[in-house]
Amino acid sequence: RSISNYLFTGNGPSGICLSYLLSGYKPYFDTATVHPNPILYRKLQEAKHIPITEQAMEYLSEGLEGRSRNPVAVLFDTLLHPNADFGYDFPPVLKWRKDKHQQIPHLVLGKGTPGGAWHAMEGSMLTVSLGIWMELPGVNYRDLTNGLRR
């Protein structure tokens, strides 16, 4: 393949997430879970067989509040960490499935090591944000940091 057949993305956290999606991973509502927001839960059940990224994001994010002004970011925050802004520790309601037919050839490029600013942190510092907000798709932050607490 020629290089013109590839999509290029950066290697910071956003680029890594985009690469995960371009690799064919799709987020679905995990029907084995219950979202604590009854309105969102009902909406998620309406199209449980369709990836979240292929649904009407405006409809799903309607009425949600969170730490961002971006309604899609608030939607994904509440799907990955339901009610975390209110101090709750509910499990995610997303399940990631890989669809090999949806893979898009791409390259992840950057000047430094993948992860961007994470490499500039002091050795004792685990995160510049609350730990769970640093998760990447398909990676549980608590599993990565197990045993690293003082």
Automatic annotation (TrEMBL):
GO terms for molecular function: growth factor activity. InterPro entries: OSGIN1/2. One of its GO terms (biological process) is negative regulation of cell growth. This is Oxidative stress induced growth inhibitor family member 2. The lineage of its organism: Eukaryota, Metazoa, Chordata, Craniata, Vertebrata.
